[in-house]
Amino acid sequence: AEDGLGVECLKGSGLIAGETSRAYEDIFTITLVTCRSVGIGAYLVRLGQRAIQIEGQPIILTGAPAINKLLGREVYTSNLQLGGTQIMYKNGVSHMTAGDDFEGVSKIVKWMSFIPDKKNNPIPISPSTDSWDRDITYFPPQKQPYDVRWLIHGKQEDDGFASGLFDKGSFEEALGGWARTVVVGRARLGGIPVGVIGVETRSVENVMPADPANPDSIEQVTNEAGGVWYPNSAFKTAQAIRDFNNGEQLPLMILANWRGFSGGQRDMYNEVLKYGSYIVDALVKYEQPIFVYIPPFGELRGGSWVVVDPTINPQYMEMYADEEARGGVLEPEGIVGIKFRKEKQLETMARLDPTYGELKAKSADKSLSAEEALEVKAKMTEREKLLLPVYMQISLQYADLHDRAGRMKAKDTIRMPLQWQNARRFFYWRLRRRLDEEYVLKAMAQSSSKELVSRTKNLQTLEAWSGVPQFSTEDQKVAQWYEENRQDIYSKIENLKQESIAYDVAAMLRANKEGGLKGIAQMLSMLPVEEKEEILKVLSTA
């Protein structure tokens, strides 16, 4: 039978699909859609996850003529209606779009400049014209919507450039057409590549196009509030975290400013629970440093705190909050509405306000006439109207005090409060230290016996080697020590490896003396005479 006509082609396609899926977990994968991608070709674009689509080149499963034939009428006029950039960029299949092949290749080259040259190698740190040692001059407005990209890369204002957290001009946004209440991309901090997730504070319009195959369908426009996770934005967050981890091996910065998940009927039906849990799944598997930072006037509440809490992956995650940030189960208005209702406010008023207390005591007097009772009741109502707004403000302020960075630190839920103005300096050295430290810790883990390995113990060993006082907080000194003494550190790790091998051999002999000795005898028989004599001399003096 002739080859290449039917199911054997599908089998080959399955083989390619499996390899592409495994490759995404293992190495950096990216697809440039320079021409029509059909069927398994479309699936390969998605299985490689990162995709740049050229304008005018569709990603489709079935061509428009075939679908028209199936429907029995001319519904679609071109393949672009099915899988052009207006579909695939808006639904997150295409991470970026490009006008032509050259622009597409340029974007790939720029993307690759953020990632290590080989798996597990250090990330490429580029020279930066934007000094790490500077203030952040863009400050977000309080209780007003703004573009979160200004926090990331700064803002051009009338009187000059207001700088953001990351290097000027370094931010490259991805997935910009999909789930726009979350902003994701890659940026540099003092030349160090970082994956970035930010939160849009402005309301966004989400447009669902009408289906040409259904004459009754119409375009649907929904509004999505800023600072809230919807099913699509939760999925986008999880997708970005997976991309940063798999193949790219980038440290991650989450500028967390969510009030919670959208729990309305439509969003529950659209699987917000499922996509929210994907965020936790992605963070659990993350193997690079993660910094969760609540920015100035930002807030992190309820379920949105839970899915980014550092206890999810304590080895790599750290949480920080700006001094002007807030965090808690509910907003102060919500807490007061539940915990300090009107009747409790009136009880407090009777206890603290002598005038109202006297009136309340009078109202309980049974000997009062009906007219006197009404008069007392009217005075009480008047006093309540005067005092309730004051008591409400005090209770809101009291509830707000429980949400501030000071209490977060006191309860050990964040590592420390930060000032936005100095956050760039802090994160530059913290990031540099954590990256240096992780490379060393991974080398120590590989050199140690499984029975002996312990991250905490290895950190204690590094602290002893460094002799740096306040080792856990002096990030600049520790980072410089790692970099200046790299050769010395790795020679000590080599000594640890030798000790580990000695421990393993001893454990093997203890477990099975005869088998262990037989193995040593086999090894000795394969050695040159000089080496054999040297080993026997060592054994004879033991």
Provide a brief overview of the structure.
The chain is of the alpha/beta class and 542 residues long. The chain has 22 helices and 20 strands. The model has no long low-confidence stretch (mean pLDDT 92).
Task: Output the radius of gyration.
Answer: 31 Å
Q: pLDDT under 50 segments (min length 5)?
A: none
Strand order of the largest sheet: 8-9-10-14-16-18-20
Q: Assign the structural class, choosing from mainly alpha, mainly beta, alpha/beta, alpha+beta, or little secondary structure.
A: alpha/beta
Q: Whole-number average pLDDT? A: 92
C-alpha termini separation: 72 Å
Oligomer classification: single chain
Count every helix, treating DSSP H or I runs of 4 or more residues as helices: 22
State the share of residues found in helices, binned by percent: 40-55%
Largest sheet: 7 strands, mixed
Q: Report the β-strand fraction as a percent range.
A: 5-15%
The coarse silhouette is globular
Q: How many strand elements?
A: 20
GO molecular function: acetyl-CoA carboxylase activity
GO biological process, one term: fatty acid biosynthetic process
Domain CoA carboxyltransferase N-terminal: 1-127
Domain CoA carboxyltransferase C-terminal: 131-446
Name the descriptors.
single chain; 542 residues; seven-stranded mixed beta sheet; 22 helices; 20 strands; COA_CT_C; ACCA; acetyl-CoA carboxylase activity; AcCoA_carboxyl_beta; Acetyl-CoA carboxylase acc1
SSE diagram, text form:
Blueprint: H1 7-26, E1 31-33, E2 37-38, H2 40-47, E3 51-54, E4 59-60, H3 64-71, H4 80-83, H5 85-88, E5 96-98, H6 101-112, H7 148-153, E6 155-157, E7 160-162, E8 172-174, E9 182-189, E10 192-199, E11 204-208, E12 220-224, E13 228-229, H8 231-245, E14 252-255, E15 260-261, H9 265-269, H10 272-284, E16 290-294, E17 299-301, H11 303-306, E18 317-322, E19 326-328, H12 332-339, H13 342-352, H14 354-363, H15 370-401, H16 405-410, E20 416-418, H17 423-447, H18 455-466, H19 475-484, H20 486-511, H21 513-526, H22 529-541
Parallel strand pairs: 1-3, 2-4, 3-5, 10-14, 13-15, 14-16, 16-18, 17-19, 18-20
Antiparallel strand pairs: 6-7, 8-9, 9-10, 11-12
Helix pairs in contact: 1-2, 8-10, 12-15, 13-14, 13-15, 14-15, 17-19, 17-20, 20-21
